[in-house]
Structures are given as C-alpha cells and as structure tokens.
Amino acid sequence: xxxxxxxxxxxxxxxxxxxxxxxLNLSEKLNGQDVKIKSIFNVNxxxxxxxxxxxxKYNKYMFKDFSTDESGNAVDLVRKVLNLExxxxxxxxxxxxxxxxxxxxxxxxxxxxxxxxxKVIDLTTRVWNxxxxxxxxxYGIDSKILDHYNVKPLSNYKLxxxxxxxxxxxxxxxxxxxxxxxxxxxxxxxxxxxxxSLKFLKMQSHIQGIDQLTYDKPYLIICSSxxxxxxxxxxxxxxxxxIAPDSENTLIPETVIENLKSKYKxxxxxxxxxxxxxxxxxxYKDKFNLPYAHLxxxxxxxxxxxxxDIKEVRNNLVGxxxxxxxx
Length: 327
Fold this sequence. Notes:
This protein is α+β, with helices and mostly antiparallel strands. It contains 10 helices and 12 strands. The strands form 3 sheets. It has a 5-stranded antiparallel beta sheet. A 4-stranded antiparallel beta sheet has the order 1-2-3-4, covered by helices on one side.
C-alpha cells in the first residue's frame, strides 16, 4: 500500500526550493546560495547565463536568464518551462508533481541561512599605460574619453565576505582591471574584460553616462553599455548624446524616461545586434514608445568600430539614426 503521509493539497505546503530543484534538475540543494546554470530556455547557451538567486527584498528564490531575458518566481518558472497559459495551471501541476514525488521520497524541509556575498571593500588605482591604450583604442576610446566618464585603471581590488566569526578576504590582481565611478567618486562597477565568466562586478545601480549629459543636444541615444557610449563619442555625432542602463536587460525607470523625454526632441535605443539586444529594444518600444536603431554590423557599436572602418560605422549609423529619429 502506498503511504499518503507526504501528500499535500495546498501549494503553500510545498517548499519553493523544491520547485527549482525538481524542475531544473539542480545538482545541489538550495540552502541560501545563488546558483548559475546554462539556460533551459536557450539551447545555444554555451556559457551559463541563468541565475537562481535568493531575493532578499521578497525573501524567496527567483530566477533570471540573461540569455533570453526570462525571469520570475518559482511559479513563473514552471509556467514557462511547461508552456502553460496561466499561473493557476502551473500551481496545479506543481501540486500534482510534488504529491507524486513525495510518495517516493522523504523530502526534508530545512531552514536555510542566506549566504553572504563578497563585497568590494578596497581598491588601488594606477596610471594609464600602453596596455590600456592597446585595449581601448581599438574601440575608438582614448584616455580623455575614459577620464570624462570616470573610468579608472585599477592595480587590484579587495573582496570580503563575512562569516560567523570573522570574514574571508580576497585580493584580486590582474591585467586590465577598470573601475567605473559616479561623478561623486562612488564606485558602481568593476570591469574586467580578461575574465570571461565574470566581466562585471556591480556595486550599485547607475544609469551610465547620465552624469555627463549636457541636455543641450536635441537627441538622446540609449546604448547597451558604457563602452558603447564612449565609442559613440568617437563618432562625433554632434546633435546627440548617449546613456546606458546597467545592462540591456535592465529597464531604465519610467520616471527617468519621462523626464528625459521632456528634455530631448527624440530618444531611441541602440542595443546589441543579436536576438537579446533586439528583444530588449522591443521592450523599450512597447513600454515607452521609443523607436530603436538596429546597426547590423558587428555585435555592438564598439565592436563595429573595432571590426570596421570608423567612417563606415559613422556613415551607416547616421543614416539609421536619421530614419529612426525622423531627422
């Protein structure tokens, strides 16, 4: 006879961690840590880009897939994975699968402790050198532009993670480490292009390039990155200036967009030339009615300058912007 002691009829009795573990077939139990896996929504995902993380604001696990921009909670995950139309259908499916699973297993619900994350507690800046010039110049970016956008070269930075009795510290040294700073000197991001798995360390949310806006140009371009903003400056398009969100997958707040609309004749997006970039631009169009400029050269604007003649990039982009912005 099958035991029914584990059978549940209430969704609230099902541990949210189990939902992620079961439907994602995780190799480890969720116990407060963040987990990174290859996207289950993108079969071409070669580098793990899907994060299962504990959201401290909502006190629960959620997911974010940076390769497809899918995100949400446990119910959203099941609805999307199984192609269900409603959250109600997903909840019923979760209950059914959990009941079936629980008859064969003894799932222990344990309290988990939120695992602390490393934070940058110190850094050392240095002077620009020839290696920096070699890296940035291929994108049309020089030290004057870097200084204007408060990008500084770093010798190292120090990470620290508190433990129960003390802390764990790491000193990171390496070639081509750069700090992105706000105009008030506060570090908001570290860029390490030589590290393939973690190119950016984010300290704070910040709309990149907003400190440098003069509001004396008629047009504003929302790029995908600070590097693209700096490359855009090299094109010397004198009637437009540029900003960028934290990432393509992060929407600039509506209040900020509305304020910017009042200051510029027209605004458009200019994100990466791939499916994720086009999808992100479409979001801005749907939510804010902002048109998008699609530069079909290399992956993004900065790579286009690296891969092609800068005059060719400028001529192509100027024509695209004229059509997009109705100039």
